[in-house]
Structures are given as C-alpha cells and as structure tokens.
Design a protein that fits this description.
- The protein has a three-stranded antiparallel β-sheet with strand order 1-2-3. The chain has a three-stranded antiparallel β-sheet with strand order 4-5-6, with no helix packed on it.
- Helix 1 packs across helix 5 and helix 6 packs across helix 7.
- With about 180 residues, it is of the alpha+beta class.
- Helices cover about 45% and strands about 10% of the residues.
- The chain folds into two domains: about 140 residues, Intergrase catalytic core (hpI Integrase, Chain A), CATH 1.10.443.10; about 40 residues, no CATH class.
- It contains eight helices and six strands, in the order H-H-E-E-E-H-H-H-H-H-H-E-E-E.
C-alpha cells in the first residue's frame, strides 16, 4: 500500500475505491476517479508491481477491492483504516505524524526534482490549476539554483568542490550530491 501511494501519488480516497480489476499490470497503470468523478490514469513502477502482485497472491479472501482490512471478513479498506495503519507503522518506526498525503506530496516533489515538467506533475496529481501543484510540491532551493546554473553552463563541464562553495553541494557535470 505504501509503495502504491508513493509510486502513483494518488489520494487515499482514490486508493480505497480501487478494485483489483482496475489495475493493468502489463502497462503498470490504473484508472482513478478524483473530485467530481473525474477520471485519470495513475502509473506505478516495477517494484510496486511486484509488491502488489505478491500482496494479491497472499490474500485469502474473495473481495474485489484492491486493499482490504487485515481481519475477517476482509472488507474494503477505508480512508480512516489506511490512516490508522500508516500511523501504527509510523509509531513502530519512531516516525510521528505519518499521513497518506505526505506520500502524495513526496511523489510530486521527487518528480519535479528529477526534471518532470510541472504540467505533467499537474496531470498525474489530477490538479485543475497548476498553482495547486506548485503549492503541493516542496521545491528544494538548492535544486532550483543548480537547475538554473545548468541552463547557462550546459556546454561547459564544471566540477566544483564543496570547499569552493558555500552551499555544501558537490557538482560534476549534471550530477549533484548534497554534502
């Protein structure tokens, strides 16, 4: 479930409405219904596909829902059930305030940091207004600076060491590592 939330960036309400038949494993995608029953595709990675297939194979129920409760009669998982599971996992790991929205926000932030155009992130998240996407994603200021530098210095290979810069970023070509 965590892999699926993080990989797709869908809302918890969309997650709990999914059925097993809604998942296209060969294309690693599913159709979700957002606000006003607006339909959009959500995509997941290969690792999530493996975990999802293992989860489905391990189930002993006949429920059509993609995610079900742990206890019999294994009913469709609810939004509050997802939140409860995540809080319990967080407590076991010593992490406070674990909430499904954080996975959605993390997915959007990572996509932007990896260079996905904001318009594509907007579409994946199902936002009508791009301003919503911009508010949702946390933009790392060091990445903004590096991206701008790369625009102007793309043709000139550069290598700077953290001792030569104040922002503790080691950059070589188009790769950067926070130090």
């Amino acid at each position: 479930m965590i892999d699926f939330l993080l990989s797709t960036g869908i809302k918890v309400g969309e997650l709990v409405r999914l059925n097993i038949d809604d998942i296209d494993f060969s294309e690693r995608e599913c159709v979700v219904y957002g606000k006003g029953d607006k339909e959009r595709k959500a995509y997941f990675d290969a690792e999530t596909k493996i975990h999802l297939l293992n989860y489905i194979e391990s189930r002993i129920d006949n429920n059509i829902a993609l995610f079900v409760s742990l206890n019999k009669p294994h009913s469709r998982l609810t939004e509050s059930g997802v939140e409860l599971r995540l809080r319990e996992m967080g407590k076991k790991l010593g992490v406070e305030k674990v909430h499904p929205r954080k996975f959605r926000r993390t997915m959007a932030t990572r996509a932007i940091e990896k260079g996905m155009p904001i318009e594509q992130v907007q579409k994946i998240q199902g936002h009508e207004q791009i301003d919503t996407t911009l508010r949702y994603a946390m933009v790392n200021q060091n990445n903004v600076k590096l991206s701008q530098e790369n625009i102007y210095h793309k043709s000139v290979p550069k290598c700077t060491h953290k001792s030569a810069r104040n922002d503790n970023v080691f950059t070589h070509g188009n790769r950067s590592v926070m130090m």
